[in-house]
Design a protein that fits this description.
five-stranded antiparallel beta sheet, disordered N terminus, alpha+beta, 29% strand, 5 strands
């Protein structure tokens, strides 16, 4: 009997239940709002060697055509060994990339490219692609979670470079890319979580 009385003491009265649920809902809402930034998804692509676009550019520009050796390229953390997205170009690839169906003659080409073409199979190339991209959903958590409104930001930079070598000597190098990337994508879904039900049902039919 005493045990039952103790249990009855700790159990909330019926009149107190709505208030208890309201407090619990309020606490959950506050927790979600305070941690909304950490609850939204985020994706990141990082360069293993360079932190900024300027660092990658400085590395490429430090190579001196007709003088720099392939070991110098490796020391700068460039090339396929250090950059996983590097494309190795064969001699036919280089010719197609340089000429690209144009009417250029050999006199129109730079000395490094001309030496590469004359070297034929002794010439090889590396197309280096480096990027540091951050994609994050930056809208409100509740609107994002319920699919009513989603705001995404993409920031970072992309860098690409072309290095041509003949017998392990750098004969040509160039660079390009996007020093700064800032893109905002906003999606509005009036039906929220029900927005995709219609297309999904049509697809199943």
């Amino acid at each position: 009997m005493a045990h039952c009385n103790a249990m009855r003491f700790f159990m909330p009265k019926p009149s107190q239940l709505p208030r208890s649920f309201a407090r619990l809902a309020w606490l959950i809402a506050c927790s979600l709002l305070s941690a909304c930034a950490s609850l939204l998804p985020e994706a990141r692509t990082e360069s293993p060697s360079f932190q900024t676009f300027q660092d990658a550019r400085a590395a490429i520009e430090s190579l001196t055509p007709m003088q720099s050796h392939v070991d110098d390229v490796s020391a700068l953390k460039l090339g396929p060994t250090y950059q996983p997205n590097t494309i190795i170009l064969s001699y036919p690839d280089i010719v197609r990339r340089v000429l690209n169906g144009s009417v250029l003659t050999k006199d129109d080409l730079g000395p490094g490219i001309l030496r590469c073409i004359n070297a034929r199979d002794a010439c090889r190339g590396w197309e280096v692609n480096i990027a540091k991209i951050n994609k994050a959903r930056t809208g409100g958590f509740l609107a994002d979670f319920t699919n009513f409104r989603r705001r995404s930001e993409t920031t970072g930079w992309r860098f690409n470079a072309l290095i041509l070598l003949v017998d392990d000597t750098v004969v040509y190098r160039s660079w390009g890319g996007q020093p700064e990337i800032y893109e905002v994508d906003i999606q509005h879904n009036p039906l929220g979580p029900l927005q995709d039900i219609g297309p999904a049902a049509i697809t199943r039919r």
